[in-house]
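Need tokens for this chain, all 193 residues.
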Amino acid sequence: SSYAMSDFNNIRPDVCWDAANGDYQVIWLQEWSTRNINNFGYDDWDVLQRSVKSSDGSMGSVVGVATSPQHEGDPCIVYDPVNKATIAAWNFRSSLTSPLNGIIANNSVAADSNDTQDLRLAVDPDGGRLLATWTKSPPSSAKFVEGATFSLSSPGSRVGSVVTIGSGSEDHFAARPACNASLKEALVSWTRK
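Here are the structure tokens for all 193 residues:
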């Protein structure tokens, strides 16, 4: 496929170093209608990716990661040193009335009646796991942060249970996970407002 990069909004990028290929991988949301981004019925959001060489800044072809007629967006990408591959995650909404769902490597995660937003990933190579965090947005109560671990060999396969990381009467959102393999620990930070 060919993508018209200058004609549409290219927003919410994320980037990781791809050690296997010796380049950066950039992922982003493209809102490809000239209509208002909030007008769900007349536009589409897609998740696109391309490589950028560190040696000279040359860019590879744009690749569609998630390009259905529905809304995919808010992407993130990490490098998995065990399987020497990148893993992408994004949000997905199949209709105006359906909740946002989180997607990791084309697999649905944490789907329920509340929106799953701002899915972020961190890799634990020694444990062979992927730590994922996200924000849940119930319609009539405060936002809260959840997380779970997933198998690196099968990124859509959850290991253990979903846990609530941050909740309360205020909104908890925008969590960012990190793993320290040498100390065998993880840290999650988030906004409370």
